[in-house]
Please model this.
Amino acid sequence: MNMQEDNYIIEVSSVSKFFGDKTALDNVSLQVKKGEFVTILGPSGCGKTTLLRLVAGFQSVSKGEIRISGKEITQTPPHKRPVNTVFQKYALFPHLNVYDNIAFGLKLKKMPKQEIEKKVKGALKMVGMTDYEFRDVDSLSGGQQQRVAIARAIVNEPEVLLLDEPLAALDLKMRKDMQMELKEMHKRLGITFVYVTHDQEEALTLSDTIVVMSEGKIQQIGTPIDIYNEPTNSFVADFIGESNILNGVMLKDKLVRICDTEFECVDEGFGENVPVDVVIRPEDLYIFAVSDAAQLVGVVQSTIFKGVHNEMTVLCGDYEFLVQDYHHFDVGETVGLLVKPLDIHIMKKERVCNTFDGKMVDDTHVEFLGCTFECIPTSSIEAGRGVKVEVDFDQVILQDNEEDGMLTGEVKFILYKGNHYHLTVFSDWDEDVYVDTNDVWDDGDRVGITILPTSIRIIN
Ligand code: ATP
Model:
């Protein structure tokens, strides 16, 4: 084992977890350094709890390997792993007082009484609950109960503390206070924290490293600053903070076109005339009364006072920008916008159109997505031949009435791109279909999906 590996306390290697047909984790790899505060962040259902439970040992991996402190523990039962877990629901014993809740595990281990007392007192001090030893846990507030739950987990001196949305049940004020306390506690204890949350602000506040997940896969691993400033794809950009996410074309190195306007940027190596996703944070757009400095000119559509700043939407041509600024402009005012090259973030597009595996049925029909579609005659490809089928995002038709579609699906991810929505529709054939539309759909909407013959490109 080399020095580098020695530094990792947790190594998750190519781990997948299946529940029947459902893939909860898809080939996930993650390395956590000793003493790090790592947060696993993602929307509901992305697999973050599953990943934590696999490390804790409450669930078994379907594929892959997990090592803790260099030791393969994939088959090791939870109580034999050097980890402890704090859950969202405090899971305290209601019939035991604070002291006995914390001492419970140590008593099971038959530790001498005096030593238990010393450890319990130490743990209570750590969570700021020194005078609460003999209180009934039922008489404590949510925040205090969660502190006791944390004390109970750290009293065993685990090498790793796993925390599954531990603050989710607390009100906002208490959550903010506890965040600061957890950060302090992490410093004082010097042990590794792996924290699960769906709250991006919490992740940015607490972590050394954030792991952003979506649909069972890791999208990005990085420091809070990296993740915020340099999101690797539009999912991360959309999920972390607020963003303007737009289609652009990289004209050449350091020059991008968005909204029919050329902007200098700092990115290189994308090639020439390559479609890209462009992210501009609302706080990076300068807004002012129109002048020669304006890169874009637009009209204010809405304005909300947010305490420290104003949040405004500005329509430039047919693109809508979200702007946050100390200056206030009224609805209807014509304004100029400017963004510095460094604040334009360019991301490779994951795809530029839908691509499906298909099979020719005859000259005018092709099979893909589990259906037979009519297509423009292609006499040169024989029946039965496997082909690639391409369909542009804006050529997929979605229908309210599922029965009107050639196949059906569910809208599951909506990205606003300034002048249209980019949707991911999970088809009932288990394949994603990507759609650009001006229609407003909601997450979870059931839809019919139709593709016209003229929209189908067959690639031999
Ligand atoms: P949440 O924040 O809502 O808890 P999560 O990101 O923690 O979401 P997981 O609980 O890890 O997500 O679940 C990931 C996926 O696996 C979900 O689609 C979930 O329905 C599924 N899943 C989790 N546990 C089971 C199980 N025991 N049986 C079947 N499916 C499961």
